[in-house]
């Protein structure tokens, strides 16, 4: 059976859990991370030298990086709806997944640590304002993509791009900050909320 190492409140673990729900995969979840089993042990670091969750163990192999894990699971189980096999269609999905992991994540990191985690190390008002502004700017970019080509991020059907960005959008909506009204994002979020996997692992009260 697939084993997932990582605490179920982690945004990156929840991407993997929602992907499993869409595919219909059984798995065993072992809670690792802050407040649970440690990730700085030699055994865990052999699986992921970054000491971060999630990690999966499947067929005797370990794998880390949440977006890569989602790609692997969709590919292994033949879910070309979630990750197309045609090269350009696949690249469009992966483009938005990579954008989520680089541009969008970097934008919200300071604001999230300051506003949600209330980290004492993130008390710079100018840095907070810049993070909020960039986070909102990039969410407006996602809104434009959905308005032009929806109803999902890459067109007519749900893909892995929606899964990873759906978790990010949930965090954006939950953060205690001023946000623009983004009608296409709101409609898309409501559409995602019709899916049981998103209600359980995405829009579930956790940022």
UniProtKB/TrEMBL annotation:
InterPro entries tied to this protein: Glutathione-S-Trfase_C-like, Glutathione-S-Trfase_C_sf, Glutathione_S-Trfase, Glutathione_S-Trfase_N, GST_C, Thioredoxin-like_sf
Name the UniProt record assigns to this protein: Glutathione S-transferase
SUPFAM superfamilies per UniProt: GST C-terminal domain-like, Thioredoxin-like
GO molecular function, one term: transferase activity
Domain spans labelled GST C-terminal: 86-207
Family statement drawn from the similarity comment of this UniProt entry: Belongs to the GST superfamily.
Keyword annotations: Transferase
Entries under PROSITE patterns matching the protein: GST_CTER, GST_NTER
Domain GST N-terminal, chain residue ranges per copy: 1-81
Matching Pfam families: GST_C, GST_N
Lineage top rank: taxon: Bacteria
């Amino acid at each position: 059976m697939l084993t997932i190492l990582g605490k179920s409140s982690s945004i990156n673990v929840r991407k993997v859990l929602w992907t499993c729900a869409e595919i219909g995969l059984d798995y065993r979840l072992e809670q690792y991370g802050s407040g649970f089993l440690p990730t700085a042990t030699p055994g865990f670091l052999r699986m992921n030298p970054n000491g971060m969750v999630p990690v999966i163990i499947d067929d005797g192999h370990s794998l880390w990086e949440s977006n890569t894990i989602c790609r692997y699971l969709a590919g292994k189980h033949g879910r070309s709806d979630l990750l197309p096999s045609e090269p350009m269609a696949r690249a469009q999905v992966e483009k938005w997944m990579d954008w989520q992991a680089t541009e969008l994540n970097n934008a919200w990191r300071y604001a999230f640590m300051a506003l949600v985690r209330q980290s004492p190390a993130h008390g710079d008002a100018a840095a907070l304002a810049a993070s909020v502004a960039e986070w909102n700017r990039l969410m407006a970019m996602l809104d434009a993509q959905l308005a032009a080509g929806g109803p999902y991020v890459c067109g007519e059907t749900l893909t892995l791009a929606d899964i990873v960005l759906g978790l990010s959008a949930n965090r954006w909506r939950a953060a205690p900050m001023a946000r623009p009204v983004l009608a296409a994002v709101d409609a898309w979020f409501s559409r995602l909320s019709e899916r049981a996997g998103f209600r359980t692992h995405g829009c579930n009260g956790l940022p």
